[in-house]
């Protein structure tokens, strides 16, 4: 199984890099003291830091992802980039949701690094994972069920048979989501704009790798995929 980036995406986003963490033989859990402390600590750091509701749009990574959404025709005020959404939730006084150890851990890392994270159960993915532009009208099953159609020109992840995520990282498919039954998964941290430096992405990828090893033991590997060096990478 591979992660692939379509040549048209490479052409449009020549600075694209993706931090990748691959996990095998994990035992996802509904909760645990380690992940709860990870979440609470991340919430405290965010609320005590320099960024608040009044100035969050000035954060360079938030601004960069808003601009990336606009570049493929999505208005951030209508579809807020995923990292910004979860950060705003916590800044307003709400806690991170309780979903599972794996998901809770990566949401905590999002709070610390201001970069979007999402992923898939590898045992439910059909073939390779491809980041590409959609021609529009492709069927998509969002988290929670139901049916939606993609818009022409939006960036999506897909496998050999379906769309996995719409609007780049806005909403994942219900069909390949990480659940308590997940044993093998991949998580991606994305940076499409050069305003997000390599070091920030590398730091976030390392933090995610370490956090997952702490709260959900298994076999992990990680790397940063850079489209200036290649357009496909092994996930096994």
Could you state the order of secondary-structure elements as H and E? EHEHHHHEEEEEEEEHEE
Q: Major β-sheet, in short?
A: 6 strands, mixed
Strand order of the largest sheet: 9-8-7-4-1-12
Instruction: Give a count of the beta strands, DSSP E runs of length 2 or more.
Output: 12
User: Helicity range of the residues?
Assistant: 25-40%
Distance between the termini: 6 Å
| Global shape | globular
Helix run count: 6
Uncertain residue ranges: none
Share in β-strands:
15-25%
Alpha carbon gyration radius: 17 Å
Class inferred from helices and paired strands: alpha+beta
Tell me what you see in this structure.
A hairpin with a 4-residue loop joins strand 7 and strand 8. The strands form three sheets. A six-stranded mixed beta sheet has the order 9-8-7-4-1-12. A four-stranded antiparallel beta sheet has the order 3-10-2-11, covered by helices on one side. It is of the alpha+beta class and 236 residues long. The model has no long low-confidence stretch (mean pLDDT 96). Helix 5 runs antiparallel to helix 6. The termini are close together. The radius of gyration is 17 Å and the shape is globular. The protein contains six helices and twelve strands.
């Amino acid at each position: 199984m591979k992660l692939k980036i379509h040549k048209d995406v490479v052409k449009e986003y020549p600075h694209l890099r993706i931090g990748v963490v691959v996990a095998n033989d994990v035992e996802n859990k509904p909760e645990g003291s380690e992940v709860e402390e990870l979440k609470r600590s991340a919430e405290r750091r965010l609320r005590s830091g320099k960024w608040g509701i009044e100035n969050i749009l000035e954060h360079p990574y938030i601004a960069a992802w808003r601009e990336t959404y606009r570049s493929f025709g999505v208005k951030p005020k209508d579809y807020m980039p995923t990292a910004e959404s979860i950060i705003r939730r916590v800044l307003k006084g709400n806690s991170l949701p309780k979903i599972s150890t794996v998901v809770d851990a990566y949401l905590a890392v999002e709070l610390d690094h201001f970069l979007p994270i999402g992923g898939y159960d590898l045992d439910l993915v059909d073939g390779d994972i491809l980041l590409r532009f959609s021609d529009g009208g492709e069927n998509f099953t969002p988290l929670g069920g139901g049916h939606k159609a993609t818009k022409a020109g939006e960036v999506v992840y897909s496998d050999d048979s379906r769309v996995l995520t719409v609007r780049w990282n806005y909403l994942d498919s219900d069909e390949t989501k990480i659940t308590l039954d997940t044993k093998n998964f991949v998580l991606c941290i994305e940076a499409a704009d050069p305003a997000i430096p390599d070091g920030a992405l590398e730091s976030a990828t390392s933090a995610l790798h370490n956090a997952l090893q702490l709260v959900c033991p298994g076999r992990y590997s990680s790397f940063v995929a850079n489209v200036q060096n290649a357009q496909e990478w092994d996930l096994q």
